[in-house]
Amino acid sequence: MAQILVVDDDQLFLTLINKILTNNGHKISLAQNGDQALQMLAADSFDLMISDVEMRPVNGMELLLNSRSLYPDLEVIILTSHSTLEVATDAMKKGAFDYITKPLDVDALSLTVQHALAHCAVKAENRRLRAEMEHLNSLEGLVAQSGSMCNICNTIASAAPEDINLFLYGEDGTSKDRIARTLHRIGPRKDNPFQMVSCEQLSSQQMELDMFGYVRGAFDWADAPKEGLLETLCGGTLFLDDITFLSLDIQMQLLKALRNNKVCKIGGSEPTDVDVRIIAATSLDVDPLIKRGAFRADLYRELSALRIDIPPLRDRSEDILPLVDQILHEELVHQRGKMDLDVDAENILRHYRWPCNERELEGAVRYAAAVAKNRVITKESLPAQIAMAAERAIHSHEAPGATGQFKGQFFRTFLYDRMRDRLKKPTTDAGENKKPPPNRKNFGDSSDIKWLG
Q1: Is the pTM here over 0.85, yes or no?
Q2: 3-class SS at 388?
Q3: Residues near 5 by Cβ (< 8 Å), separated by ≥ 6?
Q4: Residue 151, C-beta contacts closer than 8 angstroms, at least 6 positions apart
């Protein structure tokens, strides 16, 4: 049931419109002048206001301006006895959703109210989604304006509290480390330590020493015992990046530790209890490694209670400019001050394929910021090889990560993609076969989905 405020100094008209809208299932409140209407708006919450233009001492246009200023989410329909285009146009420019002329057309009133309330519902859903996205984007600075990254953030938000081992798959440079930190930061172990280890960069011997520790005398140089990461991170999270580079021997020891929640130091025989969450990551396809015996299938099953596949940046081009904005205005602003990006540079960044993903994008933006003049990044500021490759893509009509027209220019695109079956323009809610009310001028064309505005 919608709550509607009707404002008019004609008592007979108030009685008539009250009867019509009440019969349509709405809850109606009546005000006889603009002052009374403002008092009622301050005291209660309304979905819609219908106001006459000619009233004293506060006329309808003044009431429109005041109400839109104080309550920007309130939709307003203007009633006027003047059928001139100037009055209607002026009202629409000042924020009215639509207008209706007197004498009253009952069907026109009902349909226009229906459209206005549908528009209110869209706006409310947009606010909810925006709040949700702001929450998701607060996940350790993750940018989630593409549908795929939004789904990943939803998965992160759901999986983090479950305290299960996770497996991240994505090409090099797809911010797997940032996602791992986010999973730890919002999970039940957030108050305990987090440690990242690159399995590719450490030798097998050093990896074994660091992960499992050793007892005194295990080696000639072992004058004192050392705890391994599985022990020192008790209650915390261990992020094993490039886990497919672990030797089979270390894979077996890690599997035993995870299954038994115990670990034996190298050279020792007494097991120590361990409690650590493992987040593993790789840029390699695991299945071929398992088939040829380079990676243990049982360890993969143990680590992948949930697997998150991170798409490459070229397949989520909606995230490119927001990532650039994040780099410029969150990471570099303290070093170089506020910087802008011109249209040509935006076009280059959107059309380049980014084979090394976010890591390459960050490097390009940092380079461009360093050489930019007057704090404006232009096409000339960007690395030459990136600019040339992007221009070739533009000239050959290649779209990054999609076919046809580029889909990732605005945040609203993500909303439309994600909510295609849930959010519709108010005009379609009323049915395609119904005639619009007289004097109505494109009241369904002005979308309120302006998330970047």
Answers
A1: no
A2: helix
A3: 28, 29, 30, 31, 37, 40, 41, 46, 48, 49, 50
A4: none
Rounded-to-integer distance, Cα 98 and Cα 75, Å: 9
Q: Is 81 helix (H, G, I), strand (E, B) or coil?
A: coil
Series of mean pLDDT values for 10-residue runs along the chain (453 residues): 90 91 93 91 91 84 87 88 71 87 87 91 80 56 86 88 94 94 90 95 94 93 92 95 96 95 93 96 96 96 95 94 87 74 92 95 93 91 94 70 36 43 45 43 35 32
Helix, strand, coil: what percent of the chain each, to 5?
A: 50, 15, 40
DSSP assigned state of 447: -
Give start and end residues of each alpha helix (H) in 354-399: 357-371, 384-395
Smallest CA-to-CA distance from 28 within 12, 10, 9, 15 is with 15
Strand locations in 242-383, DSSP E? 262-264, 271-273, 277-282, 306-310, 340-341, 376-377
Cα separation, 255 vs 315, in Å, equals 34
- Pair of tokens at residue 7: 């404002």
Q: SS3 of 204, please?
A: helix
Q: Please, which residues bridge with residue 429 across strands?
A: none
Q: How far is C-alpha 388 from the chain's CA centre?
A: 31
What CATH number does the domain located at 314-397 have?
1.10.8.60
For the domain made up of 3-129, the CATH class stated in words is: alpha beta
SS3 category, 257: helix
Parallel, antiparallel or unpaired: strands 3-7 and 277-282: unpaired
CATH among 3.20.20.70, 3.40.50.300, 3.50.50.60, 2.60.120.560 for 147-311: 3.40.50.300
Token pair listed for 198: 């690159």
